[in-house]
Amino acid sequence: VYVWHALAGYWGGVQPSGPGLEHYDSALAYPVSSPGVLGNQPDIVMDSLAVHGLGLVHPKKVFNFYNELHAYLASCGVDGVKVDVQNIIETLGAGHGGRVSLTRSYVHGLEASISRNFKDNGCIACMCHNTDGLYSARQTAVVRASDDFYPRDPASHTIHISSVAYNTVFLGEFMQPDWDMFHSLHPAAEYHAAARAVGGCAIYVSDKPGHHNFDLLKKLVLPDGSVLRAQLPGRPSRDSLFVDPARDGISLLKIWNANKCTGVVGVFNCQGAGWCKVAKTTRIHDASPGTLTGSVKTSDVDSIAEIGGPEWNGDAVVYAYRSGEVVILPRGASLPVTLKVLEYELFHISPLKKIAENVWLAPIGLLDMFNSGGAVQRVDVDPEATTATLRTRGCGRFGFYCSRRPSKCVVGGRETEFQYEAENGLASIVIPVPDEEKYEWAIQVHV
């Protein structure tokens, strides 16, 4: 359980000389925004604070403020806090040594309190893309990389995905970017869910009680409550770095990530909406963006050679999540993908491994999960016994490619029935729900 509060306490800060608050030495301060910020995004909240002021806790007392607040929350069973409105501090530096000095005092006081009161470093930093705050942070691990999820704004969904991907190029180097919550029962729910799966982030939803799409959530979350989280922050592929997939009318956005034994590339059509410099808001500029075609290759996963290992020859198996296609992709080859706006596809890329003479295998993972390959924890090949042992988490339909029909499959020490599609080499078995949380199954494939 996390509780929200602003870096200044609340949107308007802490009431000066309020009952029980006198020892924080809070005083009214009046935000001064830079001309660049005012020109790009004027804000009614900032306008109000500039007139009425914000109750700013004295920087020398801010640790005490956070510590007393967090100690109380922790005593109530709260696990952490989402600390919002962080960039307001950069507008309040007058009389406190400037914006950098004030921000550093607040961020360091916050982190010291988090460390004392929440054992798992339980803090999500939000509205914090000001460099003063980012460069002052020493232990904050999770940072919101996006604007809010706006369920009622049709213009917001495509730009949400593309914004997080590009912001992650910077933020992902020193923090874990957070993609914000979303609604599981929503026209764009699957689009958002696929992006979270390839984003390598936490999964959380802001559903109304009783308004849930459990079929969708089961593609993200295992029965034990854990997720098949990719290992890295999801970033744009190299050929997506210098295009505009929201406005140029020709580019699909590709976001790559890595699992322990596979890579994944999410492809999204994000065209048609973006920030309008004139209206100062996100708006739809093309109500009917066209269907776009692009391509995916193994090297879109930047670390695929590392995943494949020193003996990998560059050939891989690609599993397309939505279409269910399984394709062998030779080194340097590409696979076409065609998407309408607000459509996506997830390509799971698995380097081929030789397990016997002229017999090749590649793990795919849980076929019905968005991040299928996140289930595969390890692959051990025994050429002498002509077997491969796949260590995997979760339950449900598990798939792997095998160039020849296996002689048998053993799951958890028991021989198990499997399906084999000779036309594409896909072998699949059904893994039962484990009794233990985060249990790893051993799947032995005999050829």
Fold topology:
Blueprint: E1 2-6, E2 27-29, H1 35-40, H2 44-52, E3 54-56, H3 62-75, E4 80-84, H4 99-117, E5 123-125, H5 131-136, E6 142-144, H6 156-171, E7 176-178, H7 189-199, H8 214-217, E8 235-236, E9 253-258, E10 263-268, E11 273-276, E12 281-284, E13 292-297, H9 304-308, E14 316-320, E15 326-329, E16 334-339, E17 344-351, E18 353-356, E19 359-366, E20 376-382, E21 387-393, E22 396-402, E23 408-411, E24 414-416, E25 419-421, E26 426-431, E27 440-446
Helix pairs in contact: 3-4
Protein described:
It is built from nine helices and 27 strands. The two termini are about 50 Å apart. The longest helix is centred in the N-terminal third of the chain and has 19 residues. The strands form seven sheets. It has a six-stranded antiparallel sheet with strand order 8-9-10-17-14-15. The chain has a five-stranded parallel sheet with strand order 1-4-5-6-7, covered by helices on one side. The chain has a five-stranded antiparallel sheet with strand order 18-19-22-26-25, with no helix packed on it. With about 450 residues, the chain is α+β, with helices and mostly antiparallel strands. Helices cover about 20% and strands about 30% of the residues. Pfam families: Raffinose_syn. Keywords: Carbohydrate metabolism. Belongs to the glycosyl hydrolases 36 family. One of its GO terms (molecular function) is raffinose alpha-galactosidase activity.
